[in-house]
């Protein structure tokens, strides 16, 4: 499927897309491809308290901040969502997202269901997409196929993934990643259809209606 947004179809205000799915459902693959082929779509750079890794660039890979600075961001309400992962904190900065949307750029957030709930509470207009496997058993199969983790670690990750799947009812759209090319088409169709909503194109409407 070829999906192109022209200058005429670029929205006056961008959309915030929240993408969630259990580990092993392929959501990262869908997000990376969409960022390549859907014009006007960007990825939010998160803030984190963890140290930079080799070749990571501040402001490009992450905004690297101290724990005290992160505390201040939380206290000031400067984060749309945040969480602690393996002892480090990660969060989505509110101001850059808001500025991008006002400029007509759309933003993809790939986060877990807890972060998605925080974003929906902060910005109810966010469009949420949940990526599902064809069946719950497929998660374990994919994790075992791609991972060198010990069986007990895989079992824990499968249990966590199954718990995540139970949150699917809270999302606006569902994409079932059974066949990857079809999943790409479905995912990108949701993005483009949202960006073509009449309510996002007041300037275009005025051009034709006076």
Description:
- By secondary structure, the protein is of the alpha/beta class.
- It has a single domain, classed as Rossmann fold (3-Layer(aba) Sandwich).
- It has helices at 27-37, 67-75, 94-102, 113-122, 137-146, 151-165, 180-195, 202-209, and strands spanning 16-21, 41-43, 47-48, 63-64, 79-85, 88-93, 106-110, 127-132, 173-176.
- Strand 5 (79-85) and strand 6 (88-93) form a beta hairpin.
- Helix 5 runs antiparallel to helix 6 (151-165).
- The chain starts with 15 loop residues before the first strand and ends with a helix.
- 30% of the residues are buried.
- The model has no long low-confidence stretch (mean pLDDT 88).
Helix-strand layout with pairing:
Elements: E1 16-21, H1 27-37, E2 41-43, E3 47-48, E4 63-64, H2 67-75, E5 79-85, E6 88-93, H3 94-102, E7 106-110, H4 113-122, E8 127-132, H5 137-146, H6 151-165, E9 173-176, H7 180-195, H8 202-209
Parallel strand pairs: 1-7, 1-8, 2-7, 3-4, 8-9
Antiparallel strand pairs: 3-6, 5-6
Helix pairs in contact: 5-6
**CATH homologous superfamily assignment:** P-loop containing nucleotide triphosphate hydrolases
Strand fraction equals 15-25%
Compute the gyration radius: what is it?
18 Å
The SSE string, one letter per element, is: EHEEEHEEHEHEHHEHH
Enter the CATH topology name: Rossmann fold
- Helix share of residues? 40-55%
* Low-pLDDT segments: none
Work out the count of structural domains: 1
Query: Between the first and last Cα atoms, what is the distance in angstroms?
Result: 34 Å
C-alpha geometry: globular
**Would you tell me the structural class of the helices and strands?**
alpha/beta
What is the overall pLDDT average?
Answer: 88
Instruction: Give the total of beta strands.
Output: 9
Number of helix segments? 8
Main β-sheet: number of strands, strand sense, barrel status?
Answer: 5 strands, parallel
């Amino acid at each position: 499927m070829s999906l192109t947004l022209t200058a005429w179809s670029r929205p006056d205000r961008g959309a915030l897309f929240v993408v969630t799915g259990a580990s092993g459902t392929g959501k990262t693959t869908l997000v990376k491809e969409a960022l390549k082929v859907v014009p006007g779509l960007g990825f939010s750079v998160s803030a984190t308290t963890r140290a930079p890794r080799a070749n990571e660039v501040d402001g490009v890979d992450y905004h690297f901040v101290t724990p005290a600075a992160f505390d201040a961001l939380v206290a000031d309400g400067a984060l749309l969502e945040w969480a602690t992962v393996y002892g480090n904190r990660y969060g989505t900065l509110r101001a850059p997202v808001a500025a991008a949307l006002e400029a007509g750029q759309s933003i993809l957030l790939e986060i877990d269901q807890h972060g998605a709930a925080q974003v929906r509470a902060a910005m109810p207009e966010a469009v949420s997409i949940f990526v599902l496997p064809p069946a719950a058993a497929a998660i374990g199969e994919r994790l075992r196929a791609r991972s060198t983790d010990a069986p007990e670690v895989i079992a824990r990750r499968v249990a966590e993934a199954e718990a995540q799947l139970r949150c699917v009812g809270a999302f606006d759209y569902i994409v079932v990643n059974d066949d990857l090319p079809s999943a790409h088409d479905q995912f990108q169709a949701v993005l483009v259809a949202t960006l073509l909503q009449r309510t996002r194109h007041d300037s275009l409407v005025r051009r034709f209606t006076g």
